[in-house]
Amino acid sequence: MLKIVSTILLVCFFSGFCFSQSEILSEKDLNNQPVDSILSWMRANSTTGENLDEFHRIGLKTLKRSLKTENDSLISKIHESLANWHSYNGLFSPDSVVYHAEKALAYHLKGDDQKKIADTYRSLSIDYLNTGQLDKAQEVLFRSIELYEELKDDAGLGSAYRTLGVKYRVMEDYEKSIYYTNQAIPLLEKTENYSELAIAQFNLIIGYGELGEYEKAYKATEDCLEIVKTKVPEEIFIPIRAYSYRGEVYTKAKDYDNALKDYLAAWELCKKHIGEERCATYRTEIGQIYLLQKNYGQALDHLLAGVSAYEDKDQGGIIQPYLDLAEAYIQLGDYENALLYKDKAYTNSKNLLEGKIENIESEMAIKYETGKKDETLASQAALIEQKSKTQTLFIVIASLLFVFLLSLLYFFYKSKKATRIIRAKNAENELLLKEIHHRVKNNLEMVKSLIALQSAQIEDPATKDAMIASQNRVQSMGIIHQKLYQGTNLGSIEMKDYFINLSEGILDSFNAEDQVKIECAMDNLDLDVDTAVPIGLIVNELLTNALKYAFPKQQPGIINISLEKDTHQNLKLQVRDNGVGKTDGLAPKGTGFGSQLVKLLTRQLNGKMIERNDNGTHIEFDFLIRKSA
Questions:
Q1: Closest CA to 120 of 96, 99, 102
Q2: How far apart are the first and last CA of the chain?
Q3: Residue 349 has pLDDT above 60, yes or no
Q4: Cα–Cα distance measured from residue 200 to residue 185, given in angstroms and rounded to the nearest whole number
Q5: Euclidean distance between CA atoms 375 and 617, whole angstroms
Q6: Phi/psi of residue 551, each to 5°?
Q7: 157 vs 578: CA distance, rounded Å
Q8: How many helices and strands (H and E) does the chain possess?
Q9: CA–CA separation, 76 vs 82, rounded Å?
Q10: Are 122 and 153 in contact (CB under 8 A)?
Q11: What's 334's DSSP letter?
């Protein structure tokens, strides 16, 4: 205890000012105290449910002050705190959460904290899911996954895969939701992220329930409750939601007794920790089960309380609770209230018709009140008949319009869902393809390392040179796969950057960085993989040959590489050095394997090679790419 108190005192001392969690900040505090100290107060109060009226004013005032500091990290933290508060307390629309989360991301992107950027991408994906922006959610989620993989962050990757499971759950693709959740669970267990591990079970409870695999859904619930009980007992909302989700599964399985037990458990647990008023919406679920059990009195009490809570929160989109409430009133013989809630459920579809009827009734009343009683009596029958015809006409028109709109909505939703699925599959395939290139590159690196280990134990110079040449060939292919998974275009390689990377690797293998300079005199040029690989191997052989023979006795030199494409899409490759050149009549050095490989690859690309000795060696290739394709 003494240690905790000492720590708090130190924090207060170094921050310059310390606020208690429940303390309301005065206008003087807001203007004079350090922004960091006020931010600490905001973080302490963002999830307490206290100071609701004051928090937003304090947050906006602090944000305004932070903008003047031009401290990107500080500004982003304040936006994050405001987003968390909006999300937790539900006083603003989800769009306000997204606004502050996007602002936080924008300021994080100005810095170089890749871990924080990845975390913010993942958090923003959840906010997009809550507002139904599934495409944006998918986009930022895949960005976070790429960053986590680069950082080798298992904890972040586990969270991202769990969120991907949520995304597919929202899209009602429950099999994929379960698949990605099961990918996340080992990572969350490994990194001891028990809160998210428990929350991940929600995807399994809902997914297995929707697929009819009820026993697996029940087991996922027990796993969730056990994790909270043994690892994170302070997490009060997780078991509440777990009981509620399992109640839905029991309802689907028509096991109403167990469904009622779980819904009651969720409600009681919620009341215990956050108060009865904020938990009243859970009572609609309890009322629904009592209705199914034909216990109409109990159903009515709970449904009324739940519906009232929804209406107090201005959540006007509820329909089923109204219909359930109407059914309870019908069964209890209270047809007036039953009709009231039936009308609430179907208000939007009846507005037009009711308006027309009211016009007719108003016209009749005006005529009567202005002394035209005789005319009113004479025309009453005609008006009643006209009212009936008008009512029938409007019912027919409204029905046709309703059917037409339903058809449009159905086809629109179906098309939008198909588009989302296609985009999701494309993004998933791209991610998998990058992973394949990544693994191929890693495997080639392993092969290169094995060759290096083997060559270190070889004393014969000729054999050692052959092993180094093999390393360079493997490296030339490995660089291509590295460029593919790091780039934005999975089908092509930018050759100038590739030649620069290849040159640096070969110079390093010969320890010739200070002796020989390799220049790439060419514009940026993208080539497909099938063309880039053989050209890369050719250049690798020529550079290796030049470094071995063109500059004897540590003679300095320059090697020039150029590659260009003509108007017919054919390629011209030139590699030249200012070394000693070749002596006529002198037998070639080495095994000759490299020369054979160059000739073979040249034929593969339907090319021809010209070699000249003029102040060094100049080798030129013309590749007829269209014919070779």
A1: 102
A2: 76
A3: no
A4: 7
A5: 115
A6: -130, 75
A7: 51
A8: 25, 7
A9: 10
A10: no
A11: -
- Return the SS3 of 554: coil
List, as one string, the DSSP characters of 261-304.
HHHHHHHHHHHHHH-TGGGGGGHHHHHHHHHHTT-HHHHHHHHH
Decide if 563 contacts 495 (C-beta within 8 A): yes
| Per-residue b or e along 384-409, where b marks 16 or more CB atoms closer than 10 Å to that residue's CB | eeebeebeeebeeeeeeeeeeeeeee
* Torsion on CA atoms 596, 601, 606, 609, rounded to nearest 10: -50
CB 161 within 8 A of CB 187: yes
CA 240 to CA 270: how far, in whole Å?
6
- CA–CA distance, 264 with 272 (Å, rounded to integer): 12
**CA-based angle 485:490:493, to the nearest 5?**
85
The helix-helix angle for 94-109 and 114-130 (nearest 10°) equals 160
Class in CATH terms, 475-628 = alpha beta
Residue 253: phi and psi, rounded to 5, are -80, 0
Q: Above 80 in pLDDT, residue 163?
A: yes
* pTM, full prediction: 0.50
Which tokens sit at 357? 């009827």
* Residue with token string 């030199």: 557
Residues 6+ apart with CB under 8 A from 424: 138, 168, 171
Burial label for 80, CB within 10 Å (0-12, 13-18, 19+), is buried
Alpha-carbon torsion 128, 129, 134, 135, what sign? positive
Contacts of 298 (CB under 8 A, 6+ apart): 287, 290
DSSP state string for 489-539: -TTEEEHHHHHHHHHHHHHHHHT-TTTEEEEE-----EEEHHHHHHHHHHH
Give the tens place of pLDDT for each residue, 60-74.
Answer: 777 777 787 778 888
Give the span between the Cα atoms of 383 and 366, in whole angstroms: 13
Among the residues of 280-372, which ranges form H helices?
283-292, 296-312, 320-331, 335-345, 347-369
Closest CA to 362 of 376, 374, 349, 381: 376
Cα dihedral sign, 339-342-347-351: negative
Q: Report pLDDT digits (tens) over 574-600.
A: 999 988 887 665 555 656 777 888 888
pLDDT top residue among 273 and 448: 273
Please tell me the distance from the alpha carbon of residue 384 to that of residue 357, in angstroms, as a whole number.
Answer: 10
Contacts for 84 with CB less than 8 Å, ≥ 6 apart? 46, 47
